[in-house]
User: Fold this.
Amino acid sequence: MSNHYDPTKDISPSAAYPEVSFHHHTDDAEFKKRVKKTTILLSVVTIVELAIGLLIYNLHKGEVNRDFLILLFKGVVCILTLLKAYWIVSIFMHLGDEIKNMIMTIIVPLLLFVWFIFAFIYEGNSYKNLRNTYDLHFKETTTPAKHHKSDKADEKPVEKSGKE
Amino acid sequence: MATTGTVHQTKWWSGGKSPFNMEYGKLMMWYFLMSDAFTFGAFLISYGSIRFSQNFWPDPNVVFNAFPGAGHANLPLAFVSVMTFILIISSVTMVLAVHAGHKGDKQGVIKWMLWTIVGGLAFLGCQAWEWHHLITGEHAVLADGKIEMIGQTMTGNPWGNLVEDNAALTAALSNTSHETLVSLVQSHDHTHSAKELAAMSDAQLKGMVNLAEMHVREKGPVAFGGYFYGITGFHGFHVFSGVIINIIMLMMAQKDVFAKRGHYLMIEKAGLYWHFVDLVWVFVFLCFYLI
Amino acid sequence: MKSSFHGTEAKQKNMSEAINVQSGAAHVEHHDAHSHGHHKETFVSKYIFSMDHKTIAKQFLITGIIWAIVGGLFSVLFRLQLGYPGQSFPILETFFGNWAKGGQIQPEFYYALITMHGTVLVFFVLTAGLSGTFANFLIPLQIGARDMASPFLNMLSYWFFFLASVVMISSLFISTGPASGGWTVYPPLSALGQASSGSKLGMDLWIVSMALFVVSSLLGGLNYISTILNLRTKGMSMTRMPLTIWALFFTAVLGVLSFPVLLSGLILLLFDRNLGTSFYLSDIVVNGEILANEGGSAILFQHLFWFLGHPEVYIILLPAMGMVSEILSVNSRKPIFGYMAMLGSLFAITILAFLVWAHHMFVTGLNPFLGSIFVLLTLLIAVPSAIKVFNWLTTLWRGNIRFTPATLFAIGFVSLFISGGLTGIFLGNSTIDIHLHDTMFVVAHFHIVMGVASMFGMFAGIYHWFPKMFGRYMNSTLGYIHFWVTMIGSYLIFWPMHYQGLAGIPRRYLDKRGWVSFNDFPELDKMITIVSIIVFAVQLMFVFNFFYSIFKGRKVTNPNPWGANTLEWTTPLRPGHGNWDGEIPEVHRWAYDYAKDGRDFIPQTEPIGENESKH
Assistant:
């Protein structure tokens, strides 16, 4: 019985990955420029996010009910975060440079998160409503008093597709 | 995109080659990260589900407002933005390390890996400080008719609704223990030393307590602490293991292991992992600090 | 028939030599490196810490068989209680001491038995034992690869499974007993140590064991995916792959994306147990003491659990489906009917598997509107399932069927899949589920469609690929006895449970005699118990056949005993590490050219002839 095959040899440098036919080459200067640009973009977006975060903080402090504005800004932050994620994955992790089918194998399974997030959040919200209806103690002890009293349906409005 | 020309000529799926032109190790790393994304996703989505099941949730700006060395100054989001930038910058240095690896530039790899490791350690240090600050912090809470000083732990949360009913607070003061009164006064009165305050009688202390400045709260949702420590801890664990991986890669590069192999693909895989850690932080940052 | 076999074989050999010459040039250097690499193999490196996918497959299989005996024995024990409640079996006390005081199974023991039966069979036998075995064995052989992409991680995958097994086994021997809150470990029962003796240390060990198991399944799954994508031999395009490989591919995808969610859920459960957090706990009073936990949601755990739990059903079922497709086609000497439809339905099942988890939770307090969406998505699964059943039947239709034990088990699989699948339509409707949930109907449904059917797939696979695994045949007579007793026995065990369930008999009850309305079928329960003992005994006979045949079975002399097209039969009788002695053969056609152009079968390695007809 012949024993040609040695796994430790096959992943060794001499036989480095026969399944790969070429490597991606990127121009040095162009690459550095791209990294620099992405870094700046990431920083700027983060600063904008922080600014919005502080804005939300100040909106919370106000006496007037500004739930809609808060919701809007939280939505904006979620979208900005997705944008950041896109840059990190596509530029830093070089996914944008891969073959399209490879990109699809990463993106398509992530779509499962849509239903995953929706169902869980919907269920959480429904659990709250159930308890507010049937568990008065819960309702009385946890509902914010003061200026939020005016609107009962006050939920922390978190944008639903925010997490990936 | 320089590769499009080849794409059209090659039958990628006909066998005998990788359809993605990617060695199996990198492919496995990608799919591992995908799997890990589901781990983190499940955590964050559970957090979202619990948060939506509560009538009240603390405002992150109120919880995360401290900065090392700044005492009691109210600086919402300041420290976490420092942490975020540390992680972004360490991600950039990792990109540069991978790029140096592509060129076979050993010195470049070593230099940038070192910076990446420094960034990772700095982040872990920041996180340790933040956890320590939250756990040991003392916040006045009105519970069971008395005022207590509690920190943010897995089982207790001091960030409930602000109590604005002064009568209830005054009544609660008389049930409050001596130690709590001392720390209550101490938190806004810096003219007396701790010893002096401890020697005073309860009545004296009660007279000194400034209820308006106290910001006494009710207890908040317990799940907040569990999720915060659970998820940032799990992320911190990833950062930690990433740092370990990076140190190993650095040592291997130093010892010419990769140079002998003729390629620095291991650095690329470590890089993928490191960027993923950064990516997760982006979402942790969103879910815990921003919204 | 025999002579035509040999004729083709000789032809095939010439062909593959020609191919070797052609494609050899490019790989000369590569090949040289191998022939110098006669590394020494010790007993340890060959049989224990082996990196050969075939050995790892056998390790998975044998560990799985041991677990199956343990898990099966558990079911016999609790069936004794269900069939003969109140009767004393002194021998039980001899073996289990306090767990079976006075020869009667104690309540804690009963719950530990059903919990461990579920855990062991679902995870250790039908996940690790089934896809661990056949993914490892078949993927490199059928796609034409020397080994898995990473043999080392593959080895780790087995040893993590082994570690998980050790932890789980050890939990059986602690004084408070193993986890006993059901294999789904719902909190608060599983989260609070004071809830039951099985919720103490046994539960922690269960969680640790499962965490190790998740690591094992992840290492395995990543390897299967990247091997299938990257290491197919020349000409083996995705649509030329045998359906076994497609099924194993989707199985791995399911595992890689769903097990991490279970891991998250279990980590949170571990926190609730040991660190005082309240992820799943709220408003609980135990023995008059009000617990401090507040704000958690027990339903959250069920969501996390079933986000894995439902794909897990298909992790168990898909490999069996793939193997059955292959075995039916080979043994009815006909191409598989509707190859692309089979692929499409596998894909559809994979996607749908992720979208339907809450149909296990219709009556838990789940939002009814959300439930209605889950009903819709659940019922959609009937479509791809029906496509598959149709295609299996049409593959058999007017085939030249060889009734080997493997074929019989494959046909048995189809039968069980139909019977069990139909009751799934009942349970998938949330309104009917209000009546049927938590009754014996559910037990009947999932045992037939998932448990027994997958076991049948596994048996079919073992009988069919045993000659390739060990170079010997299993005894057919014992195989036929095994099949008929198991087939009739399974229906006798599970079919009556439907009626019990429709009559409202709940599952999980230790002793139904206390309830007038639940005590309608004592004789039926007795019959089920007797049959299950017989069926278990026959499985032991199979195990005997298995081990006996490894050493004493009839030797295989024909490298392609079933006249199959796929690549594993082009390897030497007992392939070494690396599978093919020379170059890896090139592939020129799909795997199902049976009864084409007047020829019995045309192996995948044979180039397309000039005058060959098209499909």
Summary: Chain C has one domain: 44-585. The domain at 44-585 of chain C is CATH 1.20.210.10 (Cytochrome C Oxidase; Chain A). Chain C touches chain A at residues 27, 29-31, 33-35, 37-39, 41, 51, 146-147, 150-152, 230-231, 253, 257, 283, 297, 299-300, 303, 307, 354-355, 358, 365-367, 370, 572, 574, 576-579, 581 (CB under 8 Å). The longest helix of chain C spans residues 107-143.
